[in-house]
Design a protein that fits this description.
This protein has 325 residues and is of the alpha/beta class. 37% of the residues lie in helices and 28% in strands. It contains nine helices and 14 strands. The chain has an eight-stranded mixed sheet with strand order 8-9-10-7-11-12-13-14, with helices on one face. Strands 3-2-1-4-5-6 form a six-stranded parallel sheet, sandwiched between helices. Helix 4 runs parallel beside helix 5, helix 5 packs antiparallel against helix 9 and helix 7 crosses helix 9. The longest helix is centred in the C-terminal third of the chain and has 22 residues.
Length: 325
């Protein structure tokens, strides 16, 4: 495989960028960080000094830098569409934080443009690349719980101390569905397939900010009988789990979406013979995700799969909003 380093720029100084993605980029042997952009000069300078890279004081200057081949975008959801499109129009490959955009129509436009120009466009659900998900899928495929009857998944956490957090800002694309609900929607597709619909849904809107802060839904197969019950929010007791219930057993794990680098997950496998705790080695899904991003830039072997996943994810989010209304 071609291991030539890709020159990448970071648009925005979000917490996830500073805590996880940029350190993973620094550790990676497949990317070189050319710079970081922020509209706040002090943020750009601090970030650039911390990671020994260049500071850009507006997003355009980074996107227009001819040295850059790819961008990572951890901006608020409402800014994703414009900056993804500008990056793609500059022939840049894009890794963007979830959710890709605030509307299905925008996501469709972005992916059609990327497809027509053979550019990589990946929505960053890093849990896709953690070994624990592969292990769970292998258990299911090998019949450890027999035939799957139902999937349940929850992702939620207590309220944020900072009431100015962008997740509470409607104009910035805030809300629990786009932030936390996106995760159980995404993982449901790995076990029910993409050919699913939102059968029912509810969202609670906090009146003073008009933003959804928690909700739930039932997803079901169009041409099958399997369903997935999901719940999410950021006014909740912390949950971060998936349960697969079969006719011969059950699989459960409680850190499916955000296992930090080195964390050693445990999977509970329960059958008539008893409960077995399967301890897995630590992994780094951020590095694994970046390896996938690099591979797609170099080989372009799974571009259509990524476009399809992006579009289907946005469709399901749109359906959930409509069902809840």
């Amino acid at each position: 495989m071609n291991t030539e380093k890709i020159n990448i720029g970071v648009i925005g100084c979000a917490n996830i960028a500073e805590k996880y993605i940029v350190p993973a980029l620094m550790k990676s042997e497949k990317f070189k960080i050319i710079g970081v952009a922020s509209r706040a000069k002090e943020k750009a300078d601090r970030f650039a000094f911390k990671y020994s890279t260049k500071a850009y004081y507006n997003y355009d200057s980074l996107v227009n830098d001819p040295k850059i081949q790819a961008v990572y975008i951890p901006l608020p959801n409402s800014l994703h569409f414009d900056w993804i499109l500008k990056a793609l129009k500059n022939n840049l490959h894009v890794l963007v934080e979830k959710s890709m955009s605030c509307s299905f129509e925008e996501v469709l436009e972005l992916n059609n443009f990327a497809k027509s120009n053979k550019l990589v466009l990946i929505e960053n659900f890093q849990f896709r690349f953690h070994s624990q998900l592969s292990h769970i899928k292998n258990l299911v495929n090998n019949g450890a719980i027999g035939e799957v009857r139902n999937v349940r998944s929850s992702f939620g956490f207590p309220p944020f101390a900072d009431k100015k957090n962008i997740r509470y800002n409607k104009d910035l694309g805030g809300g629990a569905l786009l932030d936390a609900g996106a995760y159980p929607i995404k993982i449901s597709q790995f076990f029910l397939g993409e050919d699913i619909i939102v059968d029912s849904a509810s969202l609670y809107y906090q009146a003073d900010i008009n933003v959804d802060t928690w909700g739930s839904a039932c997803l079901k197969q169009k041409n099958g009988i399997l369903s997935s019950q999901i719940s999410f929010g950021f006014d909740n007791f912390y949950q971060n789990n998936i349960e697969l219930w079969g006719n011969k057993g059950k699989i459960y794990t409680n850190r499916i979406f955000t296992a930090p680098p080195g964390f050693e997950p445990s999977i509970e496998l329960e059958t008539p013979e008893g409960k077995q705790i399967i301890k897995l080695p630590g992994d780094d899904h951020f590095i694994n995700m970046l390896n996938h991003f690099h591979s797609q830039i170099k080989t372009k072997t799974e571009l259509d799969l990524e476009y399809s996943q992006n579009i289907n994810q946005a469709r399901l989010i749109s359906e959930l909003f409509k069902q809840a209304r």
